[in-house]
Design goal:
The protein is an alpha+beta fold. It has helices at residues 21-32, 58-62, 71-77, 88-102, 130-144, 157-166, 179-183, 195-203, 209-213, 217-224, 226-236, 265-286, 318-330, 367-382, and strands at 2-4, 13-17, 41-47, 50-56, 82-85, 109-112, 116-120, 150-154, 172-173, 252-262, 288-299, 304-315, 342-354, 388-392, 402-406, 433-444, 451-456, 459-472, 485-492, 497-503, 514-520. Strands 16-17-18-19-20-21 form a 6-stranded antiparallel beta barrel. The protein has a 5-stranded antiparallel β-sheet with strand order 1-10-13-11-12, with helices on both faces. Helix 6 (157-166) packs across helix 11, helix 10 packs across helix 11 and helix 12 (265-286) runs antiparallel to helix 13. The radius of gyration is 34 Å and the shape is elongated.
């Protein structure tokens, strides 16, 4: 199934609230180790110089414990209480993992830290049997993974969040345009405003959101400010606070679900080939190709693995995409582990560009194209930063004349190297320079003359021919304070040729010149 993603009106937001995320994380870890929780579990943290409960499991909640209670009071009630200390980083990591798993339903997933998620399900609920079917699917999958979850669906994030946390029943669905009626019976705590404002509303006898909205807007604005009015409008559907998805919506994507999760490499490769073909057909209809492809593998236990490949030029050829993914999968340091199997594989394409109606296969007899495709394969196997080309740079400093750039980056924009005049007496500079010039010991007849002999790497070389100097001054306009260099091409008695330089002009920049080896001629 291939689809083009777009933004549609009539937004629908599914809010997922995990009230026991911290205790669920600890109990899942115990279950993975084969241990069984026998005592009520609570999570405590230091708040205002006192240890207080920040999370309780279902058993502790049934015994009357709740977040905010002092740990000493909780232990006085239940002496055999199991206490763990808060780990916000671990909780956040788990929330991100859950968000990754929820991308199987929609690519637009946003975090609502520390215990909730938003899913923009606009236009996708029909794939799961409508809004009730989708909500039940999400809740059932999370429950199978031992998470306590409350869910609600509304036309905006604020209303969905309030219903998920404070709604009288789980799985509340508010029809479009009915947010005001849906949240009217919720307590004023669902507003999510400052505690002082909530306390003031309760003291004024306003216990529900409906009672608050019945009061005059001018009166509420004068008492609580414009931000409070905006929050109230968001809850009742008169305004909307946009969510911030964790990832951009892909331009084009194709996915395949499996009734029986797949584990074999052959089945995974076949699925990728089929998805690449579907994606290529969709791109062909658009007259475009893509330069970035991402394969997402959703495991049955909720884990997600993503593999990304990039190309130097836009393509829609399924053979190329499949070949690059095979190169990438074969080179993974952490192999793709299917676990209990992948029940969904998704392939998305980004960075779309127009392409000509010509074959992009690897068999195309075009030297430039073959070089680009070779760079794509090498980048897929070794990483894009390890396959580089050298771009010319406007400088006369030898080691700075070429800038390494990832080979896949903007092939068409690569500047051309300036043409150099033909040299009858051989090249003036070595083809390859040392990464860092190496110091040598040299003796010259006069301080500013060519060397007569030099010692490099403990070997003494007698100079029989010398050509130079080629003086290179520092680039003062770039703030460079290095000394000037006098370069010489020299040949020793064995016929070997070297490129060496003297740093500093004698008598002007230095009183003791230093010599360096910068390269060797082949």
């Amino acid at each position: 199934m291939a689809m083009e993603t777009s933004t549609r009106p009539g937004r629908r937001i599914l809010a997922l609230y995990l009230p026991r995320l911290s205790t669920d994380r600890l109990q899942r870890r115990q279950k993975a180790c084969g241990a069984q929780a026998e005592q009520p579990l609570v999570v405590a943290d230091k708040i205002a110089n006192a240890l207080r409960l920040v999370a309780v499991d279902l058993a502790a909640a049934r015994l009357g414990l709740k977040p905010g209670m002092a740990l000493a009071d909780a232990r006085a009630r239940i002496p055999n209480l199991t206490v763990a200390y808060a780990d916000p980083a671990a909780d956040f990591k788990l929330l991100e993992d859950i968000a990754d798993a929820c991308e199987r339903y929609t690519p637009l997933v946003a975090l609502d830290s520390p215990q909730a998620l938003f899913l923009d399900v606009t236009g996708v609920t029909h794939l799961f049997g409508g809004e009730p079917g989708m909500m039940e699917t999400v809740r059932h999958r999370l429950a199978r993974q031992d998470f306590s979850v409350r869910a609600a669906l509304a036309g905006n994030a604020d209303a969905a969040r309030a219903l998920a946390r404070f709604g009288p029943r789980e799985g509340a669905i508010v029809l479009p345009g009915e947010e005001a009626e849906g949240v009217a019976a919720l307590p004023v705590d669902a507003l999510g405003v400052d505690d002082a404002i909530t306390h003031a509303l309760k003291r004024a006898g306003l216990k529900t959101i409906g009672q608050v909205t019945d009061r005059g807007r001018g009166e509420l604005r004068a008492r609580f400010g414009s931000e409070f009015i905006f929050t109230l409008d968001c809850l009742t559907g008169r305004a909307e606070r946009p969510i911030k998805p964790r990832a951009f919506l892909p331009d084009v994507m194709a996915e395949q679900g499996f009734a029986d999760p797949v584990v074999s490499e052959g089945a995974i490769a076949e699925a990728l080939q089929r998805l690449a073909g579907n994606l290529g057909d969709c791109l062909e209809r658009r007259g475009e190709g893509a330069r970035r492809f991402e394969a997402s593998f959703f495991r049955a236990d909720g884990q997600v693995r993503r593999i990304v490949i990039e190309t130097g030029e836009a393509t829609r050829d399924a053979a190329i995409v499949q070949l690059l993914f095979r190169e990438k999968l074969d080179s993974l340091a952490d192999p793709l582990d299917p676990g209990f199997g992948f029940d969904l594989i998704r392939l998305s394409a980004n960075i779309l560009q127009p392409v000509q109606n010509e074959s992009g296969a690897f068999e195309t007899k075009n030297q430039d194209r073959e070089i680009r495709q070779l760079a794509d394969r090498l980048a897929a196997r070794f990483g894009p930063t390890r396959v580089v080309v050298y771009w010319p740079r406007a400088t006369h400093i030898p080691e700075a004349e070429a800038t390494p750039t990832p080979a896949q980056a903007a092939w068409d924009a690569k500047p051309a190297w300036p043409e150099k005049a033909q040299e009858d007496d051989g090249p003036h500079r070595p083809l390859r320079l040392f990464q860092r010039p190496e110091p040598i010991e040299a003796i010259a007849e006069i301080p500013d003359g060519p060397p007569l002999r030099f010692r490099w790497r403990s070997v003494l070389h007698h100079v029989v021919k010398a050509d130079g100097p080629e003086r290179i001054a520092p680039e003062w306009w770039r703030g460079c304070e290095d000394a000037s260099r006098d370069y010489y091409r020299v040949q020793d008695s064995s016929g070997r040729r070297f490129w060496i330089y003297r740093a500093g002009i004698y008598g002007r920049e230095t009183a003791h010149s230093q010599w360096f080896m910068h390269g060797c001629f082949a």
